[in-house]
Design brief:
- The complex is a heterodimer of chains A (about 400) and B (about 140).
- Chain A is about 45% helix and about 20% strand.
- Chain A is an alpha/beta fold.
- In chain A, the strands form three sheets. Chain A has a six-stranded mixed sheet with strand order 2-3-1-4-5-6, sandwiched between helices. A five-stranded mixed sheet of chain A has the order 8-10-11-13-12.
- In chain A, α2 packs parallel to α3, α6 runs parallel beside α10 and α8 runs antiparallel to α10.
- Chain B has a single domain, classed as Rossmann fold, CATH 3.40.50.2300.
- Helix content of chain B is about 30%, strand content about 20%.
- Chain B has four helices and five strands, in the order βαβαβαββα.
- The chains are: A alpha/beta (about 400), B alpha/beta (about 140).
- At the A-B interface, α5 of A face α1 of B.
Amino acid sequence: MPDPLPVHPLDVLIVDDEAGMRAGAARSLEGFSVALPDFNETVTFAVRSASTGEEALAQLKAKSPDILLLDYKLPDMTGIDVLAAAPGAGDFLTIMITAFASLEVAVTATKRGAFDFLAKPFTPEELRATISKAARSIYLHRKARKLEEEKRQVRFEFISVLAHELKSPLAAVEGYMHLMKERMKGPELESYDSMIERSVTRIGGMRKLVMDLLDLTRLESGKKKRTLETVDLAKAAALAAEGVAAMAEAKKVAVELKVPAGLSMTADAGEVDMILSNLLTNAVKYNREGGRAALELERSGGAIALRCSDTGIGMTEEELGRLFGEFVRMKNEHTRNIDGSGLGLSILKKVVKLYGGDVKVRSRYGEGTVFELTLKDAPVPAAVEPVH
Amino acid sequence: MTDKNKLKILVVEDDPDMMEQMKIYLESEDYEVVAASTQKEAEPLIKPGAFNAAVLDLMMENPDSGFVLSHKIKKMDQGLPVIIVTSVTKETGFYFDKARDPKAWIKADAIIHKELRFEQLKAELKRLLGAGERHA
């Protein structure tokens, strides 16, 4: 036997001028419960009642119920009037009770936010069925709202970190400007060369961050324009290697490409370059002087298997766990002078997902890192058959 | 080479440019700067009487590296003035005002914002070091 689900009572307010109706509804719901295993809860119903529109409004004002069972025809006003005057409309779910099924009432009530209808007279089973439906809807709404709230929170954190990442280079450049303005290093222009060089580097880093951010936004919004074609992977790899050549030379890192001639896949050439360049750049950037970076591609089954390995500084288990977070940059004595936006791997992961793949990483601290991923050919939109 | 007449300041900052600038300014004010770029690097440097003051970045390898360092410094050398430099806004809820609660675990003598004009840092150092002349 599975554990019983935790019980949560929903507050039901029944508004009807007939005492028999109020008592009957309360009796029907007494001891009635709805299991909602999807939400890991069982709901029961606590019923309170009102006999007039005024009384109903007073009760709604005192405490907003979860569900409002509302008779259309009340002695002092209609159910629609109650809904119009009710405080916090939308906080509760309304079920209209009506003696005569009138389309007009139905339309107006729905406009006012009524969720469902019960035609008088109804059986206890009908009431319970309607109430069950309402309870499920309440839980769905709550879950949706919670997800929305979490999304907002993630967004907020992203923006806070982004602001911090943009402020750091600004502060650095601004600081150098002040030093230069105050001629802190004397009258010789050459004394300021390193400050100018560092300022240019930091501004370059900022530009890269903004560009990466735009890439990421386009990928996330799905608004990135894609041109799918047959991409020659040997050529693409050579192009990516060319992009890191200057950095590799400066660090004396040997870059090796192992791509069978003629290997190709259906993809967007820009996206393939993003993947290959990203991997190779990291393999060179986080390498040791005199190290090696290797990029291997081959067809394996229906997909392209890609492997990028380096003999670099590697990562600890703890660092590996944080690797794919946005703006995560490993800070240690080896990475102190390495620049980066902290968005590269977030972008990589999103692009690889477009090709039905996943990114796997293995790393040993002080020995090197291996990225492995598979890329499936992008589905080409089927040519439209001419109609005869 | 250590100049015995200069006041010695430990500066811990992970941004190499901020460090460079801090050094230029503080050296122009005739302080001797001992630089460390991480909490880990700074910890073994902290010894009683080693410095006259410490200037710490708040966020380094950990978001609270500066506070942790400050705490450790104060445990070893209670009278050493500590200035924490941060770009974190006050809304974070960190309790910054020592005077209001002397038992607050965050022990720093001054908190300055990172967009600081160096005059502010200079002024804080003068204030803290002027209060009780200490020499390493």
